[in-house]
Amino acid sequence: MSRKHRGQLLFKMAINVIRRAIYLSIFVLLVVIINKWVIFQIEDSVVKAKLLRFQFSCCIITMMTFINCYIWRNLSTVLDFGHSYSDNKEWTFLINLAEFRNWKQYTVNSALWRLYLSVILVSSLFSYTTFSFMIRTNPLKVSIFLFLCFAMTVQLFCGLVITKLATLVWRFCHRDFSYHTERQNKTKQFVILAYSLIVVTVGFYNAMKLPDIKEVTIPVKDMPKSLNRMTITFVSDIHLGPTTGQQSLERIVNMINYLNSDLVIIGGDLVDGRVSQLEDAVESLSWIKARYGQYFVTGNHEYYTTDAHNWIKKLKSLGIETLHNSNVKISAPGSNDAICLAGVDDPTADLYGFMDHTMDLDSALRTCDPSQSVVLIAHQPKVAKIALDSKYRVDLVLSGHTHGGQMFPLMLGAYLLNPFYAGLYRHGDQAHVYVSMGTRFWGFPVRFGTSSEISHITLVST
């Protein structure tokens, strides 16, 4: 085959990929439009939330099915030697069923590898269903296994896409449209496998460690002298659910009490299940003691559970007050000076139309004295940006939600989709935003390039 003909084939392949992407985008857009019209005719907010959660689960499983087929097409042959191998047919998401019918043609090593890969890919498809069927007081080992398979699948897909894009760029720059040899392609396959195993193994080790204690000092304008150097223990994104349970929370609570802070704040995404599933798992929260109290704001996952209203009641019974678009005055005993501690509901409540929950900055900040320092708790950093640009005084916003992305490539999305990513930011002349990377993790127990944290914050007068 001539170089010109090979170039034409490569061009046609690119056109086919673009055409399929356009067709898929149009189909998804139509489904979303129809879905929004149908779902939001439902008046019962709990039923609406459950339907939205179910549809999101279906979307995740569908997407993972295509990804898994792509991985199988490109990596099931890793131990097949002596066969011709071409990159020109690898941008397809279809599986040739003849591979399974003719399984006797494979060597023992090749068959075992296909079995191993199929277990990983099939298991990853069931990982998201654990939120519905496998939430216990302490996580089941099978849930952790399923999410590790999910993480492995993400890394395999990421490795494949990066290597193939890099190959296309290299070929385009060098005008090389020739086939690669089997040896060259096998090398890429083994590199992808090694990379994925390292990320998941090291990431699992990092995720299962106790969270780091991060000491942060933040200057606050007009901080009362009586409250100067007040300490706050800030935890966020614990995600009690299929992979985090009672034992992990008890260790976190012990660390919180060890810090002996003046104020304890839980910044949302505490749970990934309903009260009936995790009632025993959260009992240790009643152990938390702080001089000026313990407070909580809802995160997006409290609304995904469709049980946010019952969680607020449960936390109140454990001695934790929810700042439900409201504020409290924090003052030292015997002093009239105070700061305003405010909290808002997560904007996911607006998406779900969930009961009386909504992100209402006016209700949260309207009664704060503008001459006093204002600390706002908002689970998502994008709410922090809205609050800082509003007409209200806000000196410090405490947020979570991003997890730092947990691992590549998700950290790219966390960085690009949020106005504040992780750590301490200064906004304007005086205001600050602090974004926690999360005290545990969501879903897959993997942290690579990020770390879990309990933030020990000291507020100082400027």
The count of helical stretches stands at: 15
Structural class: alpha/beta
Number of strands: 12
Radius of gyration: 25 Å
What name does CATH use for the topology of the largest domain? Purple Acid Phosphatase, chain A, domain 2
Q: How does CATH name the architecture of the largest domain?
A: 4-Layer Sandwich
Strand content: 5-15%
CA-CA gap between termini: 74 Å
**Per the principal axes of the C-alpha atoms, what is the gross shape?**
elongated
Unreliably modeled segments = 83-91
The overall pLDDT, averaged over residues, is: 86
Secondary-structure element pattern, one letter each: HHHHHHHEEHEHEHHEEEHHEHEHEEE
Give the number of domains: 2
Name given to the CATH homologous superfamily of the largest domain: Metallo-dependent phosphatases
Structure description:
The chain is of the alpha/beta class. The protein has 2 domains: about 5-205, no CATH class; about 210-460, Metallo-dependent phosphatases (Purple Acid Phosphatase, chain A, domain 2). The protein is about 45% helix and about 15% strand. The protein has 15 helices and 12 strands. The protein has a 6-stranded mixed sheet, covered by helices on one side. A 6-stranded mixed sheet has the order 6-7-8-9-11-10. Helix 9 links the parallel strand 3 (about 265) and strand 4 (about 295). Helix 6 packs antiparallel against helix 7 (about 180-210). It is elongated, with a radius of gyration of 25 Å. Mean pLDDT is about 85; it is low at about 85-90.
